């Protein structure tokens, strides 16, 4: 008999199905299995412990908790990406408090909270610290709105805290004693990162904390920890895997330097190094004993370390997989990286002189990029700031590295053409998208016409996030992308001539995407209003910083042709948000 | 399509970022095409810049460009205070070298600060025509005459400034 094989899983008991689901971690896979059947949906709901919410306004806390009552780990993202570059008003939104409030009231057993670009208050942190007995891990990236008082609550009240990771947040430092607030009974810390704090800390409190945290694997201190302080810390934590170093005086005493080096030698498990802001080159040399073990090195804040010292150090880091560095390393330095770091997977080269004030000629060019692509076969992610580029270089890079997942190139001067042929860089980027079939993230720059978007639409089948600045000629450019990139989730555009025709061509497309950002483009208020009317499941936000309450109410028909300064739209199941400030109009 | 023709006629000007409300005509537009390169007024330096692009009145920068987080921008050695001593003056002063773009500006500032005049610089003879000689201590600890090396090299290696009395500085 030729029966089709009936899927037997429907007949398994629930506990078995749940056990099978435990093996499925990715939230996308989880979302998929929840769509299979009602019973699977139900089982999946109750067994889901980790939830990822890419846009905090896409759903409400209440609905989240209703669907996933057994939630333990929550990731939330707030402001759009361009907030990093001051394009989003400070008060735009992304408040944590409603979430903590709801989770607390529902007595959710929250253990882990990861936030990106959210506004966090001390009250929220205090409520968090008191509401969740098993709370273990707090990771805050690019957040703001809180002070060290909030950290004190976390330290004092979270009995089982394992991870406190503060990355690049704006924290008001009250120079208090928040580190003292960790009780003596707290010995569970595995990861502590306060590198972004600007003020003084209680060194002896830190030393005692580190000494009793025998499981501590990751420690990133701020600039207030001096050289001998670091030595003491490393001496009582030789098990460290990940270290972030603070700031030191220009000349280290020979004795303290020797002690530091001795302490470093004992840290045989150290694999990741970062920090070094305001650190003299000589202090980097203290790490020579362990540099061969390093898999991750972030010297992108080390403005004081000159290029030649960077090169000397990096050439011995043969096991490096991740390197973040300043362009002061130069093309020569990148050539050294290419010949030394054969395991390299991710490279970021940041500009040491973003506004071209120093007029130096040692920054990186297309030569460095080509060298890296030729020398590092495992490279899959790159962020590269440079002053110049050529199509030929990009074509070579595309040939050398077909495995790119993330390719972000930022040529510092907008609209800059190929510096040898003076042509646009359409062909270069075209080669990248054609060759890198797995490309998920792309940022383009330099002189670009609609043609580059034709290529992107045609070839970038896996593309999920695209960043465009000062590029394109007509609406066709944006349309190529919207029509071609089926997996597109985030599109952010600034200073490009795309207007209403492109915006309105396929309104349904935005239901398949997380968000669209357009600033200083050609879209008008009228176009945005039309979009909002045709797509009620979208929040269409107009951001205008010069707007006040009166301005909003005075809009009349003539304003329909007014160009919109900043547009941010996103799909949502909970309609218009109620917490928008006056400078944001939701259509 | 007529609409496309209109769009095609847009020139580069329309993609320039305007700092005001959309639709308003700004007098001081930020051009994204012009170079930001400065023009040196005095050529003590060996790196004289081309004078093709007239310097903008103030440092014009495009909002949010390049796309670098602000904590990275501040990280650049953007402030470099050095002590300035003058022979005979009762106390030292401090200046931020990053405030000046060339020797001319620095020397003018020093003259104002200490109320004296520095002579004219020449490569062969140093400073002539006044009783004072500007010197500096470099990264190697050596005392050098201000003005010999290109400005950028000077500003990144200068640790201290000392305005010496000519009588104390026979070599210069």
Automatic annotation (TrEMBL), chain A:
Residue stretches making up the F-box domain: 12-53
Keyword hit for Nucleus: yes
Keywords on record: Auxin signaling pathway, Developmental protein, Nucleus, Ubl conjugation pathway
Pathway assigned to this chain's UniProt record: Protein modification; protein ubiquitination
GO biological process assignments: auxin-activated signaling pathway; pollen maturation; SCF-dependent proteasomal ubiquitin-dependent protein catabolic process
Gene3D superfamilies: 1.20.1280.50, Ribonuclease Inhibitor (3.80.10.10)
GO MF assignments: auxin binding
Subcellular location, record wording: Nucleus
The keyword Glycoprotein is annotated on this UniProt entry: no
Pfam families, sorted: F-box_5 (PF18511), LRR_6 (PF13516), Transp_inhibit (PF18791)
Gene Ontology cellular component annotations, sorted alphabetically: nucleus; SCF ubiquitin ligase complex
Classification via InterPro entries: COI1_F-box, F-box_dom, Leu-rich_rpt, Leu-rich_rpt_Cys-con_subtyp, LRR_dom_sf, Transp_inhibit
Record PANTHER family: F-BOX DOMAIN-CONTAINING PROTEIN, F-BOX/TPR REPEAT PROTEIN POF3
Protein name: F-box domain-containing protein
Origin species: Brassica oleracea var. oleracea
TrEMBL record, chain B:
A GO biological-process term: regulation of DNA-templated transcription
Domain PB1: from-to ranges: 79-166
Domain of life: Eukaryota
Biased composition, class Basic and acidic residues, residue ranges: 43-53
Pfam families (UniProt xref): AUX_IAA
Molecular function as annotated in GO: identical protein binding; transcription cis-regulatory region binding
Region: Disordered, residue numbers: 38-59
Keyword ATP-binding: no
GO cellular component: nucleus
Chief location category: nucleus
Gene3D superfamilies, A to Z: Phosphatidylinositol 3-kinase Catalytic Subunit, Chain A, domain 1
Cell compartment(s), UniProt: Nucleus
Listed name of the protein: Auxin-responsive protein
Organism: Brassica oleracea var. oleracea
Lineage, highest ranks first: Eukaryota, Viridiplantae, Streptophyta, Embryophyta, Tracheophyta
